[in-house]
Amino acid sequence: MSTIHRFIGEKNDFNWEGVDLTVFDGSDGSKYASRRLLITEEREGAKNFVFRYFKVLPGGSSTMFDKHAHDHGVLILHGHCKVKLNDQEFHAGPMDVIYVTPNDVHHFIVEGDEPLGFLCVIPNKKLLASR
Amino acid sequence: MSTIHRFIGEKNDFNWEGVDLTVFDGSDGSKYASRRLLITEEREGAKNFVFRYFKVLPGGSSTMFDKHAHDHGVLILHGHCKVKLNDQEFHAGPMDVIYVTPNDVHHFIVEGDEPLGFLCVIPNKKLLASR
Lengths: 131, 131
Fold this sequence. Notes:
homodimer; globular; 3-stranded antiparallel sheet; about 130 residues; Jelly Rolls
């Protein structure tokens, strides 16, 4: 069913109505990272893609040297980071768009004193498994 | 190949390096609308989803009573709108997230004096056709 999740967040700490917070303990190789699932199959019935918001605190990073069969579409929403993609390395900031190809090693490392926040879209994993 | 499109836009007029503008003439039922394709299969090789930025000027709207087999994941980036979804009607603004289910009639109508800008993600249509 079509749904709206209203924004109820603040600068550098985004939040939406009807959306839970998952704080990672670092066992996945991330540091100071949390996630809010915005559009999912389980809740919204979305069969094709998943919308996730990640927040990473200063000094932290996404999962180190992450690599998998699904791709990522990323839109940086707040803060700055260093992005490592295979052998490339570059800086990214608000509203930059990054596409991470399947099986590319990727790592987002916070730069500066502000939390990093980004939208990260992935395909529905059931869909991937069916191919 | 993994790609970054750096943000080179301004307030209420977003733009990215390496991304073209398509201005719609209204023959699709939209009014004062334009689009920038951010992540595509043709350019980035993205097989699962497409990232698009739409800008609609004050007084304008997305395609009227649009309805189709693919779903939309929407993140409002700037401006305000009225959203019509089947028989529902509500207001949306910056950072609100909207999921539009397949085959739901939808129409985004700009409210106020600022251009509306939103990210709209759709599944890759080849992927949909293959199911």
